[in-house]
From TrEMBL:
This is HMG box domain-containing protein. It comes from Kipferlia bialata. InterPro entries: HMG_box_dom (IPR009071), HMG_box_dom_sf (IPR036910), HMGB (IPR050342). PANTHER family: HIGH MOBILITY GROUP PROTEIN DSP1. GO terms for molecular function: DNA binding. It comes from the Eukaryota. GO terms for cellular component: nucleus. The lineage of its organism: Eukaryota, Metamonada, Carpediemonas-like organisms, Kipferlia.
Length: 144
């Protein structure tokens, strides 16, 4: 089942095309004209192979174009967040950074994640852990 798209703000800037996409736009027509019998999937495969074979010097114009577009996008996003601060934390808004602190279990929390039924192994592990705590008076851990 496909995920439903989250509605984005209509004023939100679109992300810039990557260097690969920029190359693809330039070269797809050339490959299509040189090989008119190839289906679209094969055309993309041929262009992808050509892109992988490019040297750094040949790839530089596409990378530079992407970097310029990325700088413009970053500026446009900051302006967007100034005008619409409520969108900064919205899902898909680009405001949250990767690797942000996740809510996790605190030490000693034996409860399974909310909304998820515990598996048989989890139930068995919790029972064994509780028996060990009663018998020895301490928690079983990796450092012990």
């Amino acid at each position: 089942m496909a995920k439903a798209k989250t509605a984005q703000h209509p004023d939100k800037p679109k992300r810039p095309a990557s260097a690969y996409i920029l190359y693809m736009k330039d070269e797809r027509e050339n490959v299509k004209n040189n090989h008119p019998d190839l289906p679209p999937k094969e055309i993309i495969r041929v262009v992808a192979q050509q892109y992988k074979a490019l040297s750094e010097a040949e790839m530089k114009p596409y990378v530079d174009a992407y970097e310029r577009a990325k700088e413009d996008y970053d500026i446009a996003m900051e302006e967007f967040f100034v005008k619409h601060p409520e969108e900064r934390g919205a899902k898909g808004a680009g405001g949250a950074k990767k690797g942000a602190a996740k809510k996790g279990k605190e030490d000693g929390d034996d409860k399974p994640k909310k909304g998820r039924a515990p598996t048989a192994f989890i139930l068995f592990s919790q029972a064994c852990r509780n028996k060990y705590k009663k018998k020895h008076g301490k928690s079983l851990g990796f450092k012990e």
